[in-house]
Amino acid sequence: MNYFHNNNLTYAVNNWLGAVVASNYLTTRPRFRILEIGAGAGSASEILLEYLNERGLLSRLERYLITEPNAFFRRRGQRQLSQLYSNLPLEWGTLDMNLPWDGQGIARGEFDLVYGVNVLHVAKDLLFSLGQARDTLALDGCLIISECVRPYLNQPMYPELVFQILDSFTDVDINPEFRPNPGFLTADHWRRAFRRAGFEHTEVKPELDGIREIYPHFFTGAICGRRSNPPRAD
Fold first, then answer.
1. CATH architecture designation of domain 9-227
2. Residue 113: closest CA among 10, 225, 13
3. How many angstroms separate the CA atoms of 41 and 80, rounded?
4. What is the pLDDT of residues 176-214, one digit of tens each?
5. Does residue 219 contact residue 118 with C-beta atoms inside 8 Å?
6. By CB atoms within 10 Å of each CB, which of 19, 20, 25, 69 scores lowest?
7. Where are the domains of the chain?
8. What whole-number distance in Å separates Cα of residue 184 and Cα of residue 149?
9. Peptide bond before 206: cis, by omega within 30 degrees of 0?
10. What is the pLDDT of residues 14-64, one digit of tens each?
11. What are the backbone dihedrals phi and psi of residue 114, each rounded to the nearest 5 degrees, phi first?
12. Distance between CA 38 and CA 148 in Å, rounded?
């Protein structure tokens, strides 16, 4: 709990980057609905709401569904955020990103933003989960994930040292094109995965390809993908 806390600045940078990128996107929407996946104990939700509040965007929020499959984490986040933002349309639920989302009460085309911080790198089948997120988006909706990003292929990263002992971190489907290893991926691998999942416009922020040439231990990036075309047929 101390590690995944906003007082831990080496982790909180993921929450802040995601919040900045997400709020920049949401400024273009007169009203918006958010689905957050893998919210844990709510540290990313807390920062996103704080940043939206600072930018005067909370009045546009129509729905914010915060999902976390672990009951302990979910209740902890709900207890804190429901007290801080009792006037907002916040909801909590469970979502297993490795199973069909529409069978778990998530309607297709329902949300303007699907949001997650350090969660999709543990999806069992990455393309499946990315495709489910895309189908959940409304037209011109956006998937924004803030992730630990590997600067170079096969580069060791200290944040993943402890996570290597977790089956959920290592027991994933591998693909040489977009997921050659379990755990954290490079920016190029994320771009390829988003494109393979059907996102029409994909970008990584900040410019990690340039940053790594100057400082090869900068590990934080936000990957964004928009759905500009109608949902795919089954």
1. 3-Layer(aba) Sandwich (3.40)
2. 225
3. 9
4. 999 999 999 999 999 999 999 999 899 999 999 999 999
5. no
6. 69
7. 9-227
8. 6
9. yes
10. 999 999 999 999 999 999 999 999 999 999 999 999 999 999 999 999 999
11. -105, 130
12. 15
Q: Which two tokens stand for residue 68?
A: 């976390």
Q: Which two tokens stand for residue 106?
A: 């998530």
One-character DSSP codes across the chain = --TTSTT-HHHHHHHHHHHHHHHHHHTT-SSEEEEE-S-TTSHHHHHHHHHHHHTT-GGGEEEEEEE-S-HHHHHHHHHHHHHHTTTS-EEEE---TTS-SGGGT--TT-EEEEEEES-GGG-SSHHHHHHHHHHHEEEEEEEEEEEE--SSTT---GGGTGGGG-HHHH-S--BTTTBSSSS---HHHHHHHHHHTT-SEEEEES-HHHHHHH-TT--EEEEEEEE-SPPPP-
In this structure, the chain runs to a length of 234
For 39, the token pair is 């919210």
